[in-house]
């Protein structure tokens, strides 16, 4: 049975964050508000939890799940190295609407899908998400919707699609326009924008001082 917590109420928020942290540590799924759309999340290091996340979305491993972090420094233990370009983008846009793809540390025991040795990382600009992430650590998070349906902009939309596959829903109010993050792939020889979202490509280019390959 799923439980929804209203994070606009102080006690409900505290209870909800505690319940969500307990659920994540137990390998269960939670829905959290972010600065883009609502996300369905799980312990990034639990393969069974990530598989449950993909099953809840009716999605296969061909579309790997990204990872949300609660601080800039968290990524140092998750990736092979953090190049200068990544540092510049992190300083400019985190927390915020920019996702960065980098080769992940080979020592990590996780299975986020068919990611070809890379991981997509983002630090969201939302206090509820940040507080949960700083408590439980990196989380595998995808948009809170079933495959083929629009991303959820409210907790009600998320619950209507995901139902009791999720243990805890944290209601942070409407997310506003459901615009996804911009994704920049830094795993190759030059930056590639895989998706232009909330952060304009021109803003990315201004920060790193060079042109990037744009989506077709």
UniProtKB/TrEMBL annotation:
It catalyses: L-threonine + hydrogencarbonate + ATP = L-threonylcarbamoyladenylate + diphosphate + H2O. It comes from the Bacteria. It is found in: Cytoplasm. Its EC number is 2.7.7.87. It is an enzyme of class 2 (transferase). The keyword Glycoprotein does not apply. Keywords: ATP-binding, Cytoplasm, Nucleotide-binding, Nucleotidyltransferase, Transferase, tRNA processing. Residues 14-199 form the YrdC-like domain. The keyword Transcription regulation does not apply. Belongs to the SUA5 family. This is L-threonylcarbamoyladenylate synthase. It comes from Actinophytocola gossypii.
